[in-house]
Amino acid sequence: MRSSNIKAIYQALANSEDEDSSSISPGKNRLAMDKHLLCLMVIILFTCVGYFLGQATLSRGCNETYSGPTIPLAIQRKVFQYNRTFGADPGIDSNTQAAWDSLVPLGQGTVRYPAGSKQLYTLSVVHQLHCLWSIHQNYYRSTHMHMDPERLDDDDDDDDYAEHTMSHMRHCFDYLRQSLMCAADSSLEPVDSMLGGVTGWGNERFCRDYAALVTWAENRRVSNIGGFS
C-alpha cells in the first residue's frame, strides 16, 4: 500500500510538471524538479523508516506474547494406513495399551525450556494424544459397563470419580476440537464412490517429523515416566 501511494505522488508531481512546463523557464523547471525529487526522496525515506520500525515493534510484540520454542522439524510425505490395534478394546487386545504408550516421549512430553529455567511445558501434541487415549479408554469402559450391569453397580460407587471423568471428557472434546481447527490439515481426501464418503486411508499428505519431536522432548525431559498409564 505504501509503494502505491508513493507511485501516485510521483505521478501527481510528474503531471504537475507537464502542465506547467510551457510557462516555466528551463532554469526554474530544473529547480522545481530538484525540489520535487527531494520531496519524493524524503517521503520514501520516512516510509522505509516507518516500515522497519513497525516490523521491529511487531517482532517484539510476538516475542512478548509467544514463549514457545521454535523447533525445526522436517516435512515428510506420509500415507495414512488403518491400524486396528490403536482402536481395539484394550481389555481384549493386549497390544493396544503398549501401542498407545509407544507414542509418548520418555518423560511424557513435559520439558524444561529453556535449559535451566524453572518453567515447565508439555508438548501440545502429547496433551492431544492423551485426550484421545482417555476417550478411547473410557469408551470401552462404558461399553463393558453397559454389557455387564453388575460391573456398573460396582464401578459407580465413586461419584466423585465419575464426575471427574465426565469433566475430563468435556475438556477433551473441546480441546481436540480447537486443536484440529488450529492445525487445519488441508489435505484433500478423495471420495470413495462406493462408500459415498472418505476413509482418510491411502492418500499421501505432508506431515511434520514426529520422531524428531520425540527426540527433542526426551533430550529436555524432567522425568523418566513413560507411557500414558
Automatic annotation (TrEMBL):
Supply the InterPro entries for this chain. UstYa-like (IPR021765)
User: Which BP terms from GO are recorded?
Assistant: mycotoxin biosynthetic process
Q: Which residues cross the membrane?
A: 37-54
Select a single GO molecular function from the record's annotations and give it: oxidoreductase activity
Q: Which UniProt keywords apply?
A: Membrane, Oxidoreductase, Transmembrane, Transmembrane helix
Q: In which pathway does it act?
A: Mycotoxin biosynthesis
One of its Pfam families is: UstYa
Q: Which family does it belong to?
A: Belongs to the ustYa family.
For this protein, the record's PANTHER family field holds: TAT PATHWAY SIGNAL SEQUENCE (PTHR33365:SF11), YALI0B05434P (PTHR33365)
**Which protein, by its recorded name, is this?**
Oxidase ustYa
Organism field: Talaromyces stipitatus (strain ATCC 10500 / CBS 375.48 / QM 6759 / NRRL 1006)
